[in-house]
Write a structure and sequence with these properties.
about 190 residues, mainly beta, Tumour Suppressor Smad4, seven-stranded mixed sheet, five-stranded mixed sheet, 3 helices, about 5% helix
Length: about 190
């Protein structure tokens, strides 16, 4: 048997991609302590903490308006399942945290959806979970957004699109209410 045949099966780790945005990031450089260049591996039983206190938080934000520990993310396996997930907990007594418009007060926690927007203060964080098989560890990969995440990821327009796929262009003030058009008039 060759060494290739005897080698351990390579497993992929669940990776949590986090894209950060703050309107004052260029001037205040609050993300300067975060490593945006590479994936970081964490043990499955580690809690990823985000906040101002670098001695308590793995991910430190340089901003006096951020709590010493703002929030934490815990990796876990769902009961009676082989699925892995993350739980987010608000650890700030002063600042509410929202996850896709669900407000979390101090010590409230919820499961992190596979794709969501986390907000606190003026911070916006897009979280996306990339599934993997590894049991003993997970990874984080941090990204920096140049534009507000909420504007980039806004819901699709609620304006109806006709069956022909071409949206009508109305002059300002017209077309505010739907009008019925017979197919033969088109």
């Amino acid at each position: 048997m060759s060494s290739f045949e005897e080698a351990e099966t390579e497993e992929t780790a669940t990776c949590l991609h986090l894209t950060f945005y703050h309107p004052g990031q260029a001037e205040k450089m609050m993300f300067r302590c975060l490593d945006f260049c590479r994936r970081q591996q964490l043990r499955a039983d580690d809690t990823a903490k985000f906040g101002r206190d670098s001695s308590l938080c793995r991910y430190s934000l340089v901003d006096t308006r951020v709590s010493r520990i703002q929030f934490s993310l815990q990796f876990y396996r769902k009961l009676h399942s082989s699925e892995y997930a993350f739980e987010i907990k608000n650890l700030s007594k002063k600042t509410k945290l929202t996850v896709n418009q669900t407000e979390l007060g101090y010590l409230n926690k919820t499961d992190l959806p596979w794709k969501c927007i986390i907000c606190f203060g003026e911070y916006q964080v897009l979280a996306e979970i990339q599934e993997g098989e590894a049991v003993d560890y997970f990874e984080t990969h941090l990204h920096l957004a140049e534009a507000p995440i909420l504007q980039e990821r806004c819901l699709p327009s609620l304006q109806p699109v006709p069956e022909n796929g071409i949206s009508p262009s109305f002059p300002p003030g017209q077309g505010k209410s739907p009008t019925e058009i017979d197919e033969n008039e088109m």
